[in-house]
Write a structure and sequence with these properties.
- The protein has about 525 residues and is mostly beta strands.
- It has one domain: YVTN repeat-like/Quinoprotein amine dehydrogenase (Methylamine Dehydrogenase, Chain H).
- It contains three helices and 32 strands.
- The strands form eight sheets. It has a five-stranded mixed beta sheet, with no helix packed on it. It has a four-stranded antiparallel beta sheet with strand order 2-32-31-30, with no helix packed on it.
- A hairpin with a 2-residue loop joins β5 and β6.
- α1 runs antiparallel to α3.
- The longest helix has 15 residues.
Length: about 525
């Protein structure tokens, strides 16, 4: 085993609860009768800043879902340019709750007075903050039916501004929104709960999204995708993902405008089509996400063991990143694998494989070839689980065909944490990757964020440098540092691997362990 980390002790108990809800968990509640309004599509924002096809059933804001949009690009056509300053406020969560990871952050639709809500889902509830000009403040915290050690990260905002979150303790989906939707400082309330039958579908994981027809798609630990009709308040369809050969599906997933869902496991990637009534398998492609030298890893290793290995910085943990979509129907999805000594950026053909495409040689097995659906494999200069490194858990960000990936330094980076950020482009005409730049001196310990305002493009993230925490912007064209903001020495500003959301005013907001940080 690699070096020990204090987070492992916390996660051991957390994961046992997170995976099963506990044998003594209360029975799932029935769906409450008062429905939310029909999830009608939202009108497009005045200036559509999305870097992907807009999902009309998500909130009409700059960042309504983790990873920004249904394509999971973590990018938008808005931003602050080079960073210059930061605001830090205390985060809202129950004081009894241990905080071991920083929660996800999304942006709600703008209120009538021009202010914008910021919603997060800490491990025991939902929190609301408000941006209004120079003002950034906490508004309300709503406790939910959660075990504080569960992983209830999943968060998205519907067209009506309501949040969809999970309550894994009772295996329910909760719809949360303002008591008074017209009041920017309104407290939050649970609008509705939708129970998911454990015996039929398994335990909810912290991953759900909305298809382009308004259906909620969620992943369970029984390796199932389930479709939930938010009007009816019930599961209307399910799909069993391949569960043989140690396949374990535990990452978030993108959905394209045609209903195609892309889910990655440790030994294969699967595309599933949602037709509006049922799921249908589109394709399945084997790929060893763990890499060479991992033959002794049991094929049936549990999720608890997997995530504990990730927290400890071990090799052979496979992919922990969310697939990201590039281009139209015929283009690719990209993901970062867990290979040693370097993690690879891997592309898969999303739709029909080009007729003249030949299978690529397997870089780890002389004389053998990868599945024909694999479109490219590129060893990242700065992404490694070796030494003080960790297998990438911070997913790649995409803008157009530019891909930004970064070294991950774990839940608790040390003073000399490994660094490195790189841009790799997908060249559709040449059907291959190309390294544009690699910066060895900067640490982005979370999912990189990309902003492009006309031709002014930057990528953003935070990291630890000695005993200080700093926020950095990088010029997307050159790879050179374009701005840096000192965040001090308090580890509560630490980003432990999550997402930095772009607000409609161009500022960036992310959640630290016990703080909220706004960067401009």
């Amino acid at each position: 085993m690699k070096r020990p980390h204090i987070v492992a002790a916390v996660l051991t108990g957390a994961l046992m609860l997170a995976s099963c809800g506990g044998e003594d968990a209360p029975p799932p509640p029935t769906s409450t009768p008062a429905p939310t309004p029909t999830p009608t599509a939202s009108p497009p924002p005045a200036a559509d800043v999305s870097a992907a096809p807009r999902n009309p059933f998500l909130a009409g804001s700059s960042w309504p879902i983790f990873h920004a949009n249904s394509y999971a690009t973590a990018s938008a056509r808005i931003g602050p340019g080079p960073v210059q300053e930061a605001q830090i406020i205390g985060s809202l969560t129950s004081l009894i709750a241990p905080v071991y990871v920083s929660p996800w952050t999304v942006m709600g639709p703008i209120y009538g007075d021009g202010s914008q809500p910021v919603i997060t889902t800490p491990n025991n509830g939902v929190a609301k903050y408000l941006i209004n000009g120079d003002d950034f403040r906490a508004i309300d915290f709503l406790p939910l039916n959660r075990d504080p050690l569960d992983f209830d990260w999943g968060l998205l905002l519907l067209a009506n501004g309501n949040a969809v979150v999970s309550e894994r303790l009772t295996n329910s989906i909760a719809i949360v929104g303002d008591i008074d939707p017209a009041n920017p400082t309104s407290d939050l309330e649970v609008k509705r709960r939708i129970a998911v039958n454990r015996n039929l579908y398994g335990n909810l994981l912290a991953h759900h999204s909305v298809a382009f027809d308004g259906t909620l798609i969620a992943l369970t630990d029984a390796n199932q995708l389930i479709a939930i009709d938010l009007d009816q308040g019930q599961v209307i369809s399910n799909f069993e993902l391949p569960g043989d050969s140690g396949a374990s599906f535990q990452n978030s997933f993108p959905i394209d405008q045609n209903g195609r869902i892309f889910v990655a496991a440790q030994n294969l990637t699967v595309a599933v089509d949602w037709t509006g009534r049922a799921f249908r398998r589109a394709w399945e492609a084997p790929y060893d996400m763990r890499g060479p030298g991992c033959e002794d890893v049991p094929p049936d290793r549990s999720r608890e063991e997997e995530i504990l290995a990730v927290a400890n910085g071990e090799t052979c943990t496979g992919t922990g990143t969310t697939p990201t979509l590039i281009g139209g129907d015929s283009d690719v999805m990209v993901i970062v694998d867990g290979h040693s000594p370097k993690n690879n950026l891997v592309a898969f053909w999303r739709g029909a494989i080009p007729a003249d495409w030949s299978a690529l040689p397997d870089p780890n097995k002389a004389g053998e070839f990868l599945d024909r659906r694999v479109a490219g494999v590129f060893a990242l200069p700065y992404s490694t689980p070796d030494g003080d490194g960790f297998t990438a858990q911070n997913s790649p960000a995409v803008f157009d065909t530019a891909i930004v990936a970064a070294q991950w330094a774990g839940f608790q980076p040390g003073a000399n944490a490994p660094r490195g950020v790189q841009r790799v482009d997908w060249l559709p005409n040449l059907r291959r990757f190309r390294l544009v730049w690699a910066n060895p001196s900067i640490l982005f310990n979370g999912v990189p964020t990309i902003s492009c305002v006309r031709s002014d493009c930057h990528t953003y993230g935070m990291g630890r440098y000695g005993n200080r925490y700093q926020y950095t912007s990088i010029d997307l064209e050159t790879g050179e540092e374009s701005g840096r903001v000192d965040l001090g020495i308090d580890p509560n500003v630490l980003d432990q691997g999550n997402n930095h959301a772009l607000a409609d005013d161009g500022s960036i907001v992310y959640s630290g362990r016990r703080t909220m940080i706004r960067v401009r």
